[in-house]
Design goal:
single chain, mainly alpha
Length: about 180
């Protein structure tokens, strides 16, 4: 039983870390997004505000509509939507697609977070309940501390790799002397 609770704790904590990372990462890459999508930093910053508004308004409404559906089914459903929203964010080709992807992610993040906490309370024995719930919330907190620098590091690293790779492959190449002599 202890190993099962520990594995579930790790999975739920990782889930909430991923959700937090998805929310906070935008702050760390705001300049890169502004450049890549050719919009102002204020417009990219609005993504954070819109996400927060959608999250705050939609979460209680969606949670009320869940009713008595099994928690694991609800979590799976919202994890799929969350994954789709983040995939759409990753492949967004323009600002409007990016905005829609963030709205989709916000619509799923709130219900997923509250379902994860409820699920943790439901699966944990009484003496472990507070411990498990605190770990589930800690995933979100850890993401707030590490999400921004990690997002910046990943974004800057990928940007550098792509820019270097594209420049290298787009530059005209002169034949080497070995190729000329043969």
């Amino acid at each position: 039983m202890k190993k099962k609770i520990n594995l579930q704790c790790i999975l739920l904590t990782f889930l909430t870390f991923t959700m937090g990372l998805s929310q906070f990462i935008i702050i760390g890459i705001i300049n890169n997004l502004s450049t890549d999508f050719r919009v102002s930093i204020a417009n990219i910053g609005a993504l954070v505000t819109i996400f927060a508004i959608v999250y705050a308004v939609a979460t209680p409404i969606i949670n009320l509509s869940i009713g008595s559906i099994a928690l694991h089914k609800v979590m799976l459903f919202f994890m799929l939507i969350f994954s789709f929203g983040n995939l759409l964010t990753a492949i967004a080709s323009n600002f409007n697609v990016l905005l829609m992807s963030r709205i989709i992610t916000a619509l799923s993040s709130g219900p997923l977070m509250s379902t994860a906490v409820t699920f943790a309370a439901a699966i944990a024995p009484q003496r472990k309940r507070a411990w498990l719930i605190s770990w589930v919330f800690s995933g979100f907190s850890i993401a707030s501390v590490f999400g921004v620098p990690l997002g910046t590091w990943i974004s800057d690293g990928l940007k550098s790799i792509f820019e270097t790779g594209f420049k290298r492959h787009s530059e005209p190449r002169l034949p080497s002397t070995a190729q000329i002599n043969h």
